[in-house]
Amino acid sequence: MPGPADPSRPFGVLLTAMVTPFLPDGSLDLDGTRRLASHLVDGLGHDGLVVNGTTGESATKTDAEDLAVLSAVIAEVGDRATIIAGVGTNDTRHSVDAARAAARAGAHGVMAVTPYYNRPPQEGLVRHFMAVADATDLPMITYDIPKRTGTAIELDTLKRLAEHPRIVANKDAKGDLEFAQWGMATTGLAWYSGDDILNLPLLSVGAVGMISVVGHLVGDRLKGMAEALSAGNGAEAAAINRSLLSVYTGCFRTQGVILTKAALAMQGLPAGPVRLPLVDATPEQREILRSDLAAGGVPGFAD
Description:
The protein contains 13 helices and 8 strands. The protein has helices at residues 30-43, 63-77, 92-105, 122-134, 146-149, 155-161, 177-187, 199-204, 215-230, 234-243, 245-250, 256-266, 283-295, and strands at residues 14-17, 48-51, 82-86, 109-113, 140-144, 167-172, 190-193, 209-212.
């Protein structure tokens, strides 16, 4: 794994939860996957990529497809970026198998979302995450997004999880700044923003980085914002953040994968359609998105 300049940021500062490009018939576009990964790392300066997460449409891909996408990304940029494999499901055995497959493929770390739909108790979360962490020697990120999963990771649970030597970070999409501050203060986990509109607020209270969606479009500016804040230039960081507000909002007017793929296609980058039950952006949604991205100064959209 490419070593981070600062060991307190185990996966770097800027990562993007990468979409999975598909061909027009809905099959994998592995050539497009490689080209998009290279664009994000070499063109926009990403420290790492999260592959096969929510934004990668993991819910509608097979295990074989996940492995093919992960292998393509590692082969393309794994020598110069940290590649994290999303392995979270609501079946612990399945997640363990996915983590082991990711390790064999050469992933640098794994990320596991809170099990969804079955709404386990906190003890179930502890056992689930510990089992995934025990499955490999890779560092692991827990992913807390209760608005999707139906279950929040409680603070005492995170404290227990942080005792595991390979559970080293948390992706926070809880939308609760009070909880985030207590989590940073008491768990010792590296904290990554998983909610783009809260990137700067979370960074300002101690988050070490971002696992972004809008990083597909403005990763260089997100990284500049984090670097400005780290250098003590809060005014510059705030100015960059203000310039990105219409991007944050615009990419999530409907489901984020839908509009991110639409934006990438408008830029001429690999994306392709989404898979059902998601549906592609309508012409009207694309026009609103174009206006939002122009207001945010995104290349290819700004006047």
